[in-house]
Amino acid sequence: MRRRGWSSGSLLAGLLLCAGPAAASTPVTWEYPARGVPASAPRDAKESRGGGPGLEAGPTRIEGIAIGESGALALSAPLREFYPGGSKVTPPPILWTGLLDSLGNLLVGAGNTGEVIRIDPKGTATGYARTEELGVRALAGGARGDLFMATFPSGGVYRITAAGVAEPYFDPEDRYIWAMAVDQAGQLFVATGERGILYKVTGGQEGKPFFDSDETHITSLAFDASGRLLAGTSPGGLLYRLSTDGRAELLLDTELGEISAVTVTPEGTIYAAAIGEEAIQPPRRPGEKSDLTIEVTPAGDGSALEEQTDVPRKITIDLSELVPSLAGMVTGTAGRLYRIDPDRSPVLVWKSDSERIYALAWSAGRGLVFGTGGLSAEGRVYRLEPDQTVTLLHRLREAQVTALLAHSSGRIYVCASNPGRVYLLDTGATSTGSYLSSIHDAGHRARWGAIAWSAETPPGTRLELSTRSGNRPDPDESWSEWSPPYAAEGGSPVVSPPGRFIQWKAELSRLKTELSPVLRHVKVTLLPENRPPTVRNVSVLAPGASATEPRAPKAPTQATEGSGPERSADRGAEKDQADKEPAGKGEPPKGSRWVSWTSADPDADTLACTIWLKSSPASGAGAPQAGSAQFTRLAFGVLSSPWALDDSGLAEGVYVLKVEADDAAINGLELSLRDSGASDPFLVDHTAPRLETRRPPGQKEGEGRLVLEVTATDGLSPIARGEYSVDAASGPWILLPCRDGICDTSVESFRLDVARPGPGARITLRVTDAAGNAATVEAP
Questions:
Q1: How far apart are CA 17 and CA 32, in angstroms?
Q2: Any bridge partners for residue 735, and if so which?
Q3: Contact 196, 279 (CB under 8 A)
Q4: Which 3-state string (H, E, C) describes 253-282?
Q5: What 8-state DSSP symbol labels residue 571?
Q6: What separation in angstroms does the CA of 737 have from each of 718, 763, 765, 771?
Q7: Rounded distance, CA 425 to CA 404, Å?
Q8: What's the angle, vertex CA 334, arms to CA 329 and CA 339, rounded to 5?
Q9: Using 50, 70 and 90 to split pLDDT, how confident is the model at 59?
Q10: Given pLDDT bands bounded at 50, 70 and 90, which one contains residue 448?
């Protein structure tokens, strides 16, 4: 079986919900990797909470697993801690650079300690050379066994003797040395910063500019297959190839600010890494900024911190001295990897907007390996496959991978920083590995369907998948145990108990074979538990009163893995539809009154309503008592509020109306849920008030005014309004207040006192009850 490449550089993955209906009765599919991920390079490795590149809400644990570009999982290359290992040595915070000497020892240049550490093939570390500088930024070895180191912040080059003594070798005027290289003739080349000069050093403190660039920094060096020097720069992000006389040929002009690493294959293919989203700012010179002054005073017990003096002492620190330790690592968040074949144009083979590439190494057994650091605060080791896809081999707990050294045996030393540690990436593949998926949130309690997967398991390999579930976002003692491994690749019922959260685990292994099982796709189906709708604010409006109709809520939106299949109604916590922008409904049809309500469904299911009516005991004296206590169905399948109630055929009395909503249209009758709400008792009254008129005692004819007293009596409803018109056919109706000032009882009196109209004019009085029934009487 031919091995294929796997990469997470393009994996949006983690686990996403498939697009589909949002109804509670529709099974939801949770898949790894996500559908719709583009499969072609270059890749954009997107970063998110807890995940690898493109692992949306990514896996919670990966051990011994390589993640391919398509999301496929396979056994990775073995990785073990090499330094400090099990020793009690406290490693330095940063390992800037590394070198393998002729005896197989690993030499690393440390930051903040200014020393070179030698680690023998067994992992035993000893201090090899120490300086008074802040750090060792570059190492280079000569054909004759010479070893050179460059320090910062002074920018000096030292030759290390066999006894580990650092002797001054070259001291350029430039303050920063970023890289060094030695050619086959033993000549040392030194790449510097501030002026962007590349020196050729012949020894004895003698060095001449070999290439004076227009850039501020020359940041990386390597030799091509023909022995010509390659030089990467900043802030232009340029890669030059230099002839033997120092003439420059531009090979690559990147969009980023720095060429951070360059390596060349035996066939002559050049790989160059570019980092940063903005150019490196030239370090400030002394005097261009404020210095940091520290005042040392004697301790309170009379002792002194140093030199046993009672005189306070001031120490001034040039802050620009610290710039070299940062300039190579915090100049942006982007990374690009380019491939330049002989006599061909550069090709972008990998990209990320969240990781920076700090180190490259070529191994005959592994191919191209590169190390990164970025927003996730974890260093990562990738491999570029022959088909130009990228495989994530390992994620480290350290923040950056700052150097990679390829041994002739095929092993690769991985130098990490923050804190400083060295790993050994061995040949072959691990025997076992496990991948713990992200936790899927169903939004609320759900029943699990089946788990299915697609995989390749060559003879001698094994793949097992298990699940567990719970009701808390983080697995704890309340979660179920891991299920036994599922057997049917095409689909096995999930045996984990129903809950809100679910997680799966894949365990890969091999025995007596170099082949690895490959897990390409995992799918889990689930059915979120149906939740009941709610019905609120059922109201029967007064006859003729206008109503408003809530607009329909927006269609539910699909959620991604990590948040669960929450629909728009979930997020609104069952917001009433009445909260939506209303549209006017106007007056009801003649002989009807509006019934309005608000309803909502937490799963955004379509609701259908049934309208019920029954007579009800009434409160208040003189009101009729109930007839039937059973609800009678008036309508069903009502989809929206308001609904017109025709009460013209109802007997007079007090009634209660009920609106019942169900989600059977989406969930079916067996799984449907319903809720109902009832109105306050309302009155059906078809009889107008009875009016009695009389003249006030003692009023005489011909006094120029018309005075009339009216008593209105209603058997069911309170009197609501009195008014009069001098000419009811064309004249306006004028309000006639109740004698007591408030119309609120079934018996009210009115007093009409107006100027007597002219001949032929008629005065009409009209009294209306709360049910809208009106009675009129003509004044004598």
A1: 9
A2: 723
A3: no
A4: ECCCCEEEEEEECCCCCEEEEEECCCCCCC
A5: H
A6: 14, 16, 12, 18
A7: 10
A8: 100
A9: low
A10: very high
CA distance 313 to 310: 9
CB 404 within 8 A of CB 370: yes
Say yes or no to pLDDT of 111 above 80: yes
Q: Are 400 and 392 in contact (CB under 8 A)?
A: no
Rounded distance, CA 231 to CA 183, Å?
A: 14
Are the C-beta atoms of residues 773 and 652 closer than 8 Å to each other? Answer: no
Q: What type of residue is 342?
A: P
Average pLDDT of 317-338?
Answer: 57
- Average of pLDDT values for 353-374? 93
| Pairing state between β 690-694 and 682-684 | unpaired
Q: Which two tokens stand for residue 293?
A: 């002054």
Pairing of strands 44-45, 347-352: parallel
Beta-bridge partner residues of 392: 67, 382
Q: By C-alpha distance, which of 618, 769, 634 is closest to 681?
A: 618
Contacts of residue 548, Cβ cutoff 8 Å, sequence gap at least 6: 582, 583, 584, 585, 596, 642
Can you say whether the dihedral through the CA atoms of 344, 345, 351, 357 is positive or negative? positive
Q: In whole angstroms, what is the distance from residue 678 CA to residue 166 CA?
A: 92
Q: What is the DSSP letter of 485?
A: P
CA atoms within 13 A on the CB side of 431: 2
pTM of the shown model: 0.70
CA distance 273 to 104: 27
| Token pair in block for residue 501 | 């959260």
Q: Do the beta carbons of residue 719 and residue 743 sit within 8 Å?
A: yes
Q: How many residues does the chain have?
A: 780
43 to each of 10, 353, 564, how far by Cα in Å?
Answer: 5, 10, 27
Strand ranges inside 578-652, DSSP E: 582-586, 592-600, 608-615, 632-638, 643-646
More confident residue, 746 or 300: 746
Cβ-based neighbours of 488, under 8 Å, separated by 6 or more: 452
- Pairing label, strands 367-374, 380-384: antiparallel
Mean pLDDT of 727-740: 84
**3 state SS of 395:** strand
Structure tokens at 428: 């072959």
pLDDT surpasses 60 at 157: yes
Q: Which of 206, 207, 204, 202 is nearest to 192 (CA)?
A: 207
